[in-house]
Amino acid sequence: MEKLVVGILAHVDxxxxxxxxxxxxxxxxxRKLGRVDHKDAYLDTYNLERERGITIFSKQAEFELGxxxxxxLDTPGHVDFSAEMERTLQxxxxxxxxxxxxxxxxxHTMTLWRLLARYQIPTxxxxxxxxxxxxxKEKLLAELKKRLSDNCVDFTWEKSDLQSQFLxxxxxxxxxxxxxxxxxxxxxTSDIRKVIxxxxxxxxxxxxxxxxxxxxEFLHGLEKYCETPEYPSExxxxxxxxxxxxxxxxxxxMKITGGTLKVKELLTDTEKADQIRIYSGAKFELxxxxxxxxxxxxxxxSQTHPGQGFGIERESEMPVLEPVLNYRILLPExxxxxxxxxxxxELEEEEPELxxxxxxxxxxxxxxxxxxxxxxxxxHLIWERFHVAVxxxxxxxxxxxxxxxxxxxxxxxxxxxxxxxxxLLLEPGEPGSGLQFFTACSEDVxxxxxxxxxxxxxxEKEHIGVLTGSPLTDVQITILTGRAHAKHTEGGDFRQxxxxxxxxxxxxxRNILLEPYYEFRLEVPAEMIGRAMADVQKMxxxxxxPEVEGETAILKGTAAVAQMRDYQKEVVSYTHGTGKLFxxxxxxxxxxxxxxxxxx
Length: 600
What we know:
alpha+beta; 7-stranded mixed sheet; about 600 residues; 6-stranded antiparallel sheet; 17 helices; elongated
């Protein structure tokens, strides 16, 4: 049987899971329609998804359509889980983009559209909730053409008396097709398949998944206009997700992209495919082999990661999502911190956007995260998986310290029968250069082995500033001179003298507190750009002149992390969910409210 992998994507609340249920019902996969609000949807297998009514993890369902076996991959719609969705995109043959007819194209829909373009995935559109008051098909089609692509074409005309209008709309999407149409006034099904496959044409279907209107026509269109990919005979596979089943077995989800994978076959030098599972909803069937085009979960692999390729497949570039806040994970009193660290590292494999960091100095586990929604989900995940109730501390900003001008530091260490003396020059370094160490001391004054020892002591620890105890950075430290006693000096004496010289120099220096800065991109509806600019000015941030793309205004600039960290929520609130804020770490710069931070 021919195989096809189709992903279903949408902005949160567009009705993606409802459409999936409708498709599975009509193809005979399920006997009864589940509903998100009744908490019995076939694909929302995870408790938290049923509770919140949102899809968090990508899942799959298998069904038959005509002579094809289709794997439907359901992806998360919430923006905090877009990394999970982006990993799934890499294994799709086609995508279904669900749009809420009542809301039209929203900010996150645009993000999805850009990702589909990046991965070059042919896309069918289903415009849902057309049964709601105020939905206007003509208006929606105009908006799709304007904001997504001119080549969005209404496929509900295909069977009507508007057949010629339909063929005309299709033909203008491609020059060759247009020439053929003008000559013969005909376009074949295979012509249409070809331009859809090349992303020159985007079929649009309108309906209501909840009322089951338009779903059958949509399925008919999917069956008629999809092309089955041809796969090479050599073996290839692409890993797109790591998960664990209820028994704790590690599952590597992969798409077979060439040849056939057989059970017990070696995939690496040491590890083989113990089981091949074909999942549908929460259940799976075991398979002896998986031919090209199959999506399967494989057990027995302990080192795989999303984006990994086997056989003829190369490693793919995975999305880089920079976490921006550092939260301390607060554990219950009776919880072993090292055991928990091991378990959280396991979770990090499945959720690459979760960065777990062990703070050795404080003996604490920290999580670096993208957004607030993640915290709720993580708490729940940790409870479900490990039965540990964790809390998250407040998100912290990591400060650093440096100095403004050169200063000399002197350190003596001379208790009874010990002696060492060190003179160091501390100078400001280039921004981003960290700490650098040199010597300008003659070996006639201080023997080479003592100088090497001083340099070792300078490099062996993280030096902290005197303002807030934050790490010292962007400073050059040079040995000027030093003294040792022929009889009484031991190695450890120079360690003490070196540390004292650094501290003494910093106490005399003009110290500067550095704070992290974001480089940001803010997208808001054009009429709200004034509010956005005023907000950034209030944060003492800087920005370039705004750019306007259609009805969206874009503001780019820099602002302190401390000022901007909670701004995401404000943007969502004043733009009613249409605005978006993207931040990446730019680097460190002098803190504008140094005295206030130091006092706190």
